[in-house]
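Here is one such protein, fold included:

. . .
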Amino acid sequence: SEFQHVPPGLYEFFGLTTGLRPRRLPDYRSALTAAGLTRTAMQQGLGGILVSELWCSLTTASPHDRNHVPH
């Protein structure tokens, strides 16, 4: 997983400071794939802590997106 580099305690700190209960990310990739979407781009920053992904329906994706290979 791309999120193996998350420093210990980061989710706990986030939960304490925001009042939110989740302590890990949901399996959004499976849900998006099941909905017919495909990841067309991904960028990472801050050593993998910050991740940005673009998910598209291939029926509505631009020709550039259809030819782009996900990282």
